[in-house]
Amino acid sequence: MSSHCCHHETPQIKDIENLGRMRRVLWVALLANAAMFVVEIASSLGSGSLSLLADAIDFGGDALNYGISLAVLASALAWRARAAVLKALCMLGFGAYVLGSALWAVWSGSVPNATTMGVVAVLGLQTNLGVAWMLYAFRQGDANMRSVWLCSRNDAIGNLAVLLAAAGVFGTGSAWPDLLVASLMAALALHGGASVLRQARAELRAPAPAR
């Protein structure tokens, strides 16, 4: 997404007012993601959808990531970069797990319930669009805040993909659309994790500002 699409200025950590704004947004994001994690875990188990399970794990991971972001929000850049490394590793681990699960399901998976997939995906999409809208102003901040924005953006894309998977499962009566979308979500997590990890490592290598 181009930096010229919106005229918001990226808030600075040193600005107390913006720091409070970041903290409030992160709390809302954490609670919303935690709630959707519970909803999607239950729904994925009931529907047998791997893409819905992947989305649920993603929601849970994001809730944890938002908590880490809150913990280091006012810390020095080096500590925020270390937190970003941890979150990037979580994203990479999530992507690897889902990709492996999708490959395993090729041989052992069953056809999921398309109706449950669609309804829950719409609810998740509404949640993620709201969170992404709140986080948009922070998308070009340090690696810690950039990782928060990327998580929310990826989740919204993932929800759209689950909707497409639900339509594909309903239309074909096959589990393949669900497996393909789960693989796509895994690739998205791997790409986002690698991006955040590169920025965090660059921030850790940068010289400390003179006092």
List keywords for this structure.
single chain, 211 residues, mainly alpha, Alpha-lytic protease prodomain-like, 80% helix, globular, disordered N terminus, Cation_efflux_TM, plasmid, Cation_efflux_TMD_sf, Cation transporter, transmembrane helix
Order of helices and strands: HHHHHH
Strand proportion: under 5%
The appropriate CATH architecture is Up-down Bundle
Output the structural class.
Answer: mainly alpha
- The proportion of residues forming helix, as a percent range, comes to over 70%
Protein architecture, described:
With about 210 residues, this protein is an all-alpha fold. It has one domain (about 15-205): Alpha-lytic protease prodomain-like (Up-down Bundle). Helices cover about 80% and strands about 0% of the residues. It has six helices and no strands. The protein has helices spanning about 15-45, 50-70, 75-110, 115-135, 145-170, 175-205. Helix 3 (about 75-110) packs parallel to helix 5 (about 145-170), helix 4 runs antiparallel to helix 5 (about 145-170) and helix 5 runs antiparallel to helix 6 (about 175-205). The two termini are about 35 Å apart. Keywords: Membrane, Plasmid, Transmembrane, Transmembrane helix. Its main location: membrane. InterPro entries: Cation_efflux_TM (IPR058533), Cation_efflux_TMD_sf (IPR027469). This is Cation transporter. It comes from Comamonas endophytica.
